[in-house]
Design a protein that fits this description.
about 160 residues, alpha+beta, Diphtheria Toxin, domain 1, six-stranded mixed beta sheet, 4 helices, 6 strands
């Protein structure tokens, strides 16, 4: 179980403009940290840098997306139960390698870890981006967000 220390984040999310009314939509298809029965729960993927959001969105498309059809949201988050997989000691505790965290073809180890952490009440995983080398994503498990959390989401007027 992660330490109950409140951490603050400034995060970004790119959202298709037709979905901008709900800027934290749940992924409907499986992702690196959720699959199978986890699809009934909401999992939000955000990035610590706007460029990483664009890299993630483009990684799931056949060609680069038209940025005019998307909106960028800035999310201020304060979370208590975060597992930081960018820390070598934390990766070791969960028997994960950085390579496994960045592997887009073999998601099973990340999905199994996501299921375990979700069941343990973890609110977020801080991990490496699979789409942008060296960048960091934060994965939120919506059902574990509670009164100890703060999430403020607004359109980023300074979007690139």
């Amino acid at each position: 179980m992660p330490e109950e220390k409140r951490r603050r984040f400034i995060l970004f999310r790119v959202v298709y403009e037709l979905a901008a009314e709900d800027p934290l939509p749940a992924r409907q298809t499986e992702g690196r940290f959720h699959a199978g029965e986890d699809l009934k729960s909401h999992t939000y993927y955000l990035a610590e840098e706007e460029d990483t959001c664009w890299a993630e969105v483009n990684a799931h498309k056949d060609r680069p997306v038209d940025p005019h059809l998307y909106r960028v949201f800035r999310v201020e988050a304060a979370l208590s139960r975060v597992v930081d997989l960018t820390e070598p000691a934390v990766r070791k505790r969960y028997r994960m390698t950085r390579g496994e965290l960045e592997d887009v073809l073999h998601r099973e180890p990340c999905q199994a870890l996501g299921k375990l952490l979700r069941e343990q009440g973890v609110q977020a995983i801080r991990t490496y981006s699979a789409a942008r080398k060296g960048a960091v994503n934060v994965v939120l498990f919506a059902e574990n967000l509670d009164a100890s959390c703060e999430l403020r989401c607004q359109e980023n007027q300074e979007a690139k």
